[in-house]
Automatic annotation (TrEMBL):
<dbReference type="InterPro" id="IPR014026">
    <property type="entry name" value="UDP-Glc/GDP-Man_DH_dimer"/>
</dbReference>
<dbReference type="InterPro" id="IPR036220">
    <property type="entry name" value="UDP-Glc/GDP-Man_DH_C_sf"/>
</dbReference>
<feature type="binding site">
    <location>
        <position position="154"/>
    </location>
    <ligand>
        <name>NAD(+)</name>
    </ligand>
</feature>
<dbReference type="InterPro" id="IPR017476">
    <property type="entry name" value="UDP-Glc/GDP-Man"/>
</dbReference>
<dbReference type="Pfam" id="PF03720">
    <property type="entry name" value="UDPG_MGDP_dh_C"/>
</dbReference>
<feature type="binding site">
    <location>
        <position position="206"/>
    </location>
    <ligand>
        <name>substrate</name>
    </ligand>
</feature>
<keyword id="KW-0560">Oxidoreductase</keyword>
<feature type="binding site">
    <location>
        <position position="31"/>
    </location>
    <ligand>
        <name>NAD(+)</name>
    </ligand>
</feature>
<dbReference type="GO" id="GO:0003979">
    <property type="term" value="F:UDP-glucose 6-dehydrogenase activity"/>
</dbReference>
<feature type="binding site">
    <location>
        <position position="259"/>
    </location>
    <ligand>
        <name>substrate</name>
    </ligand>
</feature>
<feature type="domain" description="UDP-glucose/GDP-mannose dehydrogenase C-terminal">
    <location>
        <begin position="315"/>
        <end position="417"/>
    </location>
</feature>
<keyword id="KW-0520">NAD</keyword>
<dbReference type="Pfam" id="PF00984">
    <property type="entry name" value="UDPG_MGDP_dh"/>
</dbReference>
<feature type="binding site">
    <location>
        <position position="329"/>
    </location>
    <ligand>
        <name>NAD(+)</name>
    </ligand>
</feature>
<feature type="active site" description="Nucleophile">
    <location>
        <position position="262"/>
    </location>
</feature>
<feature type="binding site">
    <location>
        <position position="122"/>
    </location>
    <ligand>
        <name>NAD(+)</name>
    </ligand>
</feature>
<protein>
    <recommendedName>
        <fullName>UDP-glucose 6-dehydrogenase</fullName>
        <ecNumber>1.1.1.22</ecNumber>
    </recommendedName>
</protein>
Amino acid sequence: MKNIAVIGTGYVGLVTGTCFAETGNNVTCVDIDANKVERMKGGEVPIYEPHLDVLFERNIKQERLKFTTELAPAIEDAEIIFLALPTPPGEDGSADLSYVLGVAKDLGKIIKEFKVIVDKSTVPVGTADQVSAAIREETDIPFAVVSNPEFLREGFAVDDFMNPDRVVIGTEDEKAKTIMNELYQPFIRDGHPLIFMDEKSAELTKYAANSFLATKITFMNEVANFCEIVGADVDRVREGMGADTRIGHRFLYPGIGFGGSCFPKDVSALMKSGNDHNFNFSIIDAVLNVNNQQRIKLLDKVLDHFGDIEGKKFALWGLAFKPDTDDIREAPALYLVDELTKRGATITAFDPEAIDNVKNVIGDKIEYAKNQYEVLDGADALLIATEWSVFKNPDFNEIKSRLKSPIIFDGRNIFNLNDIREKGVFYSSIGRQTIIPKV
Ligand SMILES: NC(=O)C1=CN([C@@H]2O[C@H](COP(=O)(O)OP(=O)(O)OC[C@H]3O[C@@H](n4cnc5c(N)ncnc54)[C@H](O)[C@@H]3O)[C@@H](O)[C@H]2O)C=CC1
Ligand SMILES: O=C(O)[C@H]1O[C@H](OP(=O)(O)OP(=O)(O)OC[C@H]2O[C@@H](n3ccc(=O)[nH]c3=O)[C@H](O)[C@@H]2O)[C@H](O)[C@@H](O)[C@@H]1O
């Protein structure tokens, strides 16, 4: 059992804190958002993340998980302090370290004994040194700074955290190594490795992993675009490639580009890190360019089909950047909304979880429906931007009777081409043949 403080209770901090409590530790989570802290104290999970609620409730009830806005009392007894703070992109694409370094400075002012300060935020190479320097400016008390990047995916966060493929720990401090090794034992029982390395290598591992996955997706998006030109089927190509164990089946799904709070920002930040060292990450540059185009791929298809879309009405399924989350940061759906509305189209959208978040950002720029069929009424076409399970087996009679004409543009390839042939709809997807209904 360890006493732990987690600073920042977003997707990463809240999952980290809850899962460490679940493995028997005493965890105090700190956030500057007083409203959020009050809601959590009242037992409310402030984000939509499958399976988090059960662990959250259990650990609050058993008094292993607490919340506060006060940094000093939260860290007083904590042996380990996790920083799970935002590192949003700055104007030039670099990671904004002001949250991390600001809290580091605050910690320097209040620590009274040795602490292990662990950076879980995604930060550029060299940040651990900057965190150490920020603390050292304020205190002579000994401490160790550890880089422990997080690899969880939203929507699978609890499972990813409890059963990680690997845990990366960057530190050369022997005491910190022992403490981190003890802390993570419950998570690596099934043989997944705890990989120790220096701080810089750990920091770069995180960016390299995210950028590699973003590159894999982008490569497939380009293959899909080429499939459309030459009449190949990207589903078959994906199966054929993925069966090679050196390639693997995962992260080969083409679509309307990667979004989310991490891939776009981390790929840009790695590019910027390279620039800072006069190093040109040319692959990363290409990934960013291709992804920017891919995000509005459905727009190209819609314009090809309709020509002018001024006054057209579109139904949109999916707003979240991927299924099983209410997160809309860098969601391709929102880029699409922007481009369509700019050209005079109107949109009614449905998403199972993300509507409230979208309303907070774009308000009444579009209309919202309470279910996936209501959005269809009188629309010129249905556009699919997120592959929520509830969209995958719909009532096609409802779709056909409610739309003005049965036209579907699918940015996530959620339907099997053989099945859709029987449905009597025009169906255009990514990297596959367009299905035109027989008249
Ligand atoms: N979202 C994800 O799936 C993953 C995110 N990461 C990285 O983890 C870091 C955090 O990301 P998210 O959890 O998504 O961020 P988030 O934006 O969801 O949450 C950050 C939290 O920190 C709080 N905060 C801001 N300043 C604070 C301060 N001075 N003291 C206490 N709390 C403060 C905010 O109120 C917010 O609740 C980022 O570096 C991100 O790149 C890494 C892996 C996965
Ligand atoms: O650093 C982070 O924040 C996290 O970023 C991603 O996780 P996440 O953004 O939650 O979601 P992913 O499932 O990776 O999807 C990212 C984007 O890629 C897209 N994607 C994913 C897979 C695929 O085959 N095709 C594809 O277009 C998704 O639609 C989504 O827009 C990584 O998968 C996590 O390992 C990492 O910890």
